[in-house]
Amino acid sequence: LKMSWFWFYLPLHLLVVACLCHSIKAPTTSSQKSFKTDLFNFYHSLILADGKETTVHLLKDIPKRYYFVLEEGKALAPFTVTVTPCDVPIEWSILVHKASAICFLPAGDHDTQDVSRSQKASSMVSTIFNYKGNSVETYMGMSSHSALYMLEFLSTERDTHITVYLTTDTTSGHLYPELPMDPRIDVIGIGYTTVTLTWKHSPSVLQHRENIQYCLLVNEKHNYKSLCAAETAIRSSGMKLPPALALSLSPYLLEPQQVMILSNSELSIINRASSGEVRQICIGTKNTYTVPNLRPSIQYYFDIFVVNLLTNASAAYTGTFAKTLDEPEPKVAELKDGKVVQVVLDGKKQKSYSLQYQAKHKRIQFTFQLCHGQVRVHIAKNGKTVASENISGLRYFSLKGKLLDMYLVQVKSTEETNSSVKVQVSPHFHKPLFPLLPESLKIKSFSKLRTCNSVTIAWLGTQEESKYCVYKKKIEEDQLWNELQNADRCSGPEARHKSEKVLCKYFYDINLQRAVTTETIKGLDAGTLYLFDVYLFGPSGIPVRYHSKVVKTRKKC
Predict the structure, then answer these.
(1) pLDDT category, 516, cuts 50, 70, 90?
(2) Domain 444-487+496-552 sits in CATH 2.60.40.10
(3) DSSP per residue over 233-280, as a string?
């Protein structure tokens, strides 16, 4: 068999391994044919780069081979191979060929002893390591220039990809950050919406703090053994990675404390996939963290990765899981016809409140007046939702049903701060608790009518004669935001200082187009900021507060 074509496939530094003669026929015994097949398999694999992480794509049931040797002139030297499966379990092996100088002798020029040597050399291919699974696995061994190593990878489940890292340089540090002797994650606190985790520091963090950080992966499905595996799972769930993250999760792109969520279209706060939410939180170098914004009664899986910011290589701690506490059943209070109930919610401790009402009439009306904060109202009749929306100002819900229908009203705070709302239910024909409202509760001011000591304001009225009271208050510019945010929109004039009262007046107009009134407030200070409020009183005497208006008098006139 002519072997001249074979020289093309041999790197120069491997020519010392097999002394193949250019124009001489090879032996034809079965053992020598097997040896030639081994050589063919070795040299038709790919060269594995030293000191670089290589991504390998595997097709189902088709093995893929890589090989490496030491640089010429090196004696015994240590080497490590790290393989990271990025999806399904794989099989991989390391084989070594220890025949250092093998020559095919010319036909007719070899004796029995030569054939025996060739057979012995052929049998010196051995497997030194074998693994099957989806964990990150590292092999450490000793190599020499007289040995040729082959790595063989096989996926039997489906097409997949892995990363492989080979290094023969053990003096220049590690590509992968080191894990502590005990790589477990401890759960030290569980709440309704939080879980607190702690873990032992990586030696790499203590040595190279500026180049290393911890990243936490949270999901509702299972633990991941590498960032590579997490990325693959996110892709397979149908989520689209942002362009900057198309090749890897790239935690080094994040600022400390920043939350990166992979959503169906772009970076967002939380992603809700079919398998639950997935989020990655990079937290710098601290080794205790409280995961916020979880949901009650849900089991979450937590994985900590220590990441080298310079190389993007990572090592995984042993993942853990925890179930958040069950949310306590909300208190249920009874609503009675015509009675006003004020619900106060603590945005942190108690975020919801339930009210129950059994209908004594076919038509009923729920009234909600938002006093402070932000709330969402959910109304169910006999277990079926009939209304659900965020409340702003005053809101009526007129509902039709049957006698003895059971209504459940749930009021939920939508923010961390305290919220409050007034709730009333009454028969539809009942005398309304609140006055008839105009189309808008805004107060308008006229800039051209402003002077150094007066301003002119206007507001809309209704077709029903009602009482309107105007109040004013001096305010500093740095107090303006707090004053508007913390105002109790349910409180009436009784909560105001007497000196703040300007006037009270009655008016109405059958023609809504003309149901508007103006008032000029005099005796003000020049160049001063004032807060104006108008209160509308209905037949029941319960006031409705217009939206506050801030006006500044002129400095010079």
Answers:
(1) very high
(2) yes
(3) HHHHTTPPPPGGGSS---GGGSPTT-EEEE-SSSEES--EETTEEEEE
